[in-house]
Amino acid sequence: MTIASLENTKIKNLLKLKQKKYRDLTNEFLIEGEHLVQEAYKNKAVKELIIVENTNINIDIDINTNSNIQITYVTKEIMKKLTELDTPTNIIAVCEKKLATTITGNKILLLDKIQDPGNLGTIIRSAKAFNIDTIVLSLDTVDLYNSKVLRSTQGIYNYLNIVRMDLFEAIKIIKEKKINLYGTNVVKGINIKSLQLKDKSYALIMGNEGQGLNKELQNLCDENIYIPMNKNVESLNVAVATSILLYELNGE
């Protein structure tokens, strides 16, 4: 059976998942496109596949033997309503949220009130590239399961320990682990190229796109660092700055 009506209860519920409050209520989110669906499947997060009728899907999922994954077929018109892509995909997955609850490892990245989905997605990819163990999202950072964030990560969010919690609580845990916390400060900071890490463990906290790092949080940092650059440039995009700092701190 193929669903062809927007009045169908299942379709109405899927459309609701575009809103954060319903993602939080159901603990579910949508992912679009073959690559991202495949990555979510590898992470055992896929609960249901929504597929356009009479189309070929190039993913490594045997839908005939995975009886725990429900398959729903829809028309192209329905998929156009469900998708948030300019060019509609032929497959969407309903996935279970798997946000972590504890800070693990000895390389931690904390994000204070990051608002742009593209920035968060880029930061997540850089964090994995430069061997971050845990990312801590502040309670007022953009939702990890925002569709634009998920697309920007290109599936990398599946391979990181990502926690959403109060940053003051997170810093308390980091201090208990005796991990040095670094913030950013162009005036009072240390040139990142001059920084000598005591060991391979560290925590880096990055601030909001417009306001920078919360002053109370900055005061809790063990040291502040900055990126040396042309004086005609006032600041860098937070995703770019985070990527550079992680590269330098990674030291490989």
What does this structure look like?
Strand 6, helix 5 and strand 7 (134-137) form a beta-alpha-beta unit. A seven-stranded parallel sheet has the order 8-7-6-11-9-12-10. Strands 1-4-3-5-2 form a five-stranded mixed sheet. The chain has helices at residues 9-16, 20-26, 34-42, 76-82, 117-129, 147-153, 167-176, 215-218, 238-250; strands at residues 2-3, 28-32, 46-52, 70-74, 91-96, 107-111, 134-137, 161-164, 181-184, 190-191, 202-206, 223-226. It folds into two domains: 2-96, Ribosomal protein L30/S12 (60s Ribosomal Protein L30, Chain: A), CATH 3.30.1330; 107-250, SPOUT methyltransferase, trefoil knot domain (Alpha/beta knot), CATH 3.40.1280. It is of the alpha/beta class and 252 residues long. The radius of gyration is 21 Å and the shape is elongated. The protein starts with a strand and ends with a helix.
The DSSP helix count reads: 9
Alpha-carbon Rg, integer: 21 Å
Estimate the mean pLDDT confidence: 92
CATH C-level label of the largest domain: Alpha Beta
β-strand amount: 15-25%
Any idea of the CATH topology of the largest domain? Alpha/beta knot
Strand order of the largest sheet: 8-7-6-11-9-12-10
Low-confidence stretches: none
Task: Give the number of domains.
Answer: 2
Choose one word for the global shape.
elongated
Structural class of the helix and strand makeup?
alpha/beta
CATH architectural grouping of the largest domain: 3-Layer(aba) Sandwich
| Helix and strand pattern | EHHEHEEHEEHEHEHEEEHEH
**Fourth-tier CATH superfamily name of the largest domain:** SPOUT methyltransferase, trefoil knot domain
Assign a percent range to the helix content. 25-40%
Distance between the termini: 54 Å
